[in-house]
Amino acid sequence: MSLDLFLSQKPLFYDVIDLERFPNAFDRIAHHFKLPKIIHLVGTNGKGSTGRFLATALHRMGKKTGHYTSPHILCFNERIWIDGDDISDDKLEGTHQKLYSLLPMDISDSLSYFEYTTLLALVAYEECEYVVLEAGLGGEFDATNVFDKVLSIFTPIDFDHSAFLGDTIASIAGTKLRSMQTKALIGKQPYIQTKIIARQIATQKSCTLLCSDGMITEAIKENAVTLAVKNRLSDYLRENLELAMAAFEILGYEATIELFDQEALFGRLTKIRENITLDVGHNALAAKAIAETFAGQKITLVYNTYADKEYREILSLLSPIVEKVEIIEVNEARIVERDFLESALRELGIAYSMFEVLDETREYLVFGSFSVAEAFLKRLSHNN
């Protein structure tokens, strides 16, 4: 069975997570592989860009490197990056056939979409020296946390996935931070409580905990500023770059400008046209960063959202920079009912309409989930 057909039979989301299913599946095939050195990325925002900065630098150092990120925007291959490129169709299908032959059918069928693709990525990365592995949901119970790691990196932690992780920063941060193992680097955090919890967990686990405040040297700051100006990186992306550079030096290498002279992962404050910026952030923390980036400007926001997101808070945070919202149609079961979204916009006093065509005289921000980005890019491609 082809990978496309196999994955099409799996639901993308589950109401209940079976915590034993993935570890049991990995145990069945672990003896077939030698795991690479895994760098685990956990947090609410910044995982993708921080990971790509780090993975690209390791690749340029001559280290065979993989970067696993999710979800994808247009093509599944985006999830499995190896030495500078998304995995090819042939290698992807060959990897699937190998994994499918190793797993008993009842186990492969029982795995969730994300669980199976996480195993798929590890098989694809078996010849890599390093793999930057981005957590999907949470940390402690995430499929990516099953593997031993040489370093855990914690990007900013904020409210997200409350149905699974809890509705307090203590519960959310605790779940994410308990994924640390032997050495961890924690980046800038919006809540002081997060670092307090991190120190407590590190002590319990005898884990060496390093804070970015002490690891981001003046040289790293100067190099990051230089690169941010050259590559037009926002303050938010510059901070992710600094965190990646600090992690690189913890691994024993020098974070030079040449190795880190790169743009961020596509999808985070990406200029896709002179007047169109795209960002796949879909929570309040991302909205705060975007509001700071566009402060003093007025933009047209192309937007839609999942029903379980705090969209009223997000729109409130963005309202100082928004002239008008254009709601884009997204064919996805989790998308909020339009009446609810329109009600929130009216309450906030934000003008809105449905997205139809682009006006070349307007400055656009396409903001929301990967599904929003996908819908917009497809419309853009079709109109061209």
Write the SSE topology.
Elements: H1 3-8, H2 21-29, E1 37-42, H3 47-60, E2 65-68, E3 80-82, E4 85-86, H4 89-102, H5 105-110, H6 113-124, E5 130-134, E6 151-154, H7 162-165, H8 169-177, E7 183-186, H9 192-205, E8 208-211, H10 212-215, H11 218-230, H12 235-250, H13 257-260, E9 270-273, E10 276-279, H14 284-293, E11 299-303, H15 311-318, E12 322-327, H16 338-348, E13 352-354, E14 364-367, H17 370-383
Parallel strand pairs: 1-5, 1-6, 2-5, 6-7, 7-8, 10-14, 11-12, 11-14, 12-13
Antiparallel strand pairs: 2-3, 3-4, 9-10
Verbal overview:
The protein has helices at 3-8, 21-29, 47-60, 89-102, 105-110, 113-124, 162-165, 169-177, 192-205, 212-215, 218-230, 235-250, 257-260, 284-293, 311-318, 338-348, 370-383; strands at residues 37-42, 65-68, 80-82, 85-86, 130-134, 151-154, 183-186, 208-211, 270-273, 276-279, 299-303, 322-327, 352-354, 364-367. The radius of gyration is 21 Å and the shape is globular. Helix content is 44%, strand content 15%. An 8-stranded mixed beta sheet has the order 4-3-2-5-1-6-7-8, sandwiched between helices. Helix 15 (311-318) links the parallel strand 11 and strand 12 (322-327). With 384 residues, the protein is of the alpha/beta class. The protein has 2 domains: 3-260, 3-Layer(aba) Sandwich (UDP-N-acetylmuramoyl-L-alanine:D-glutamate ligase), CATH 3.40.1190; 270-383, Mur ligase, C-terminal domain (Protein-Tyrosine Phosphatase, Chain A, Alpha-Beta Complex).
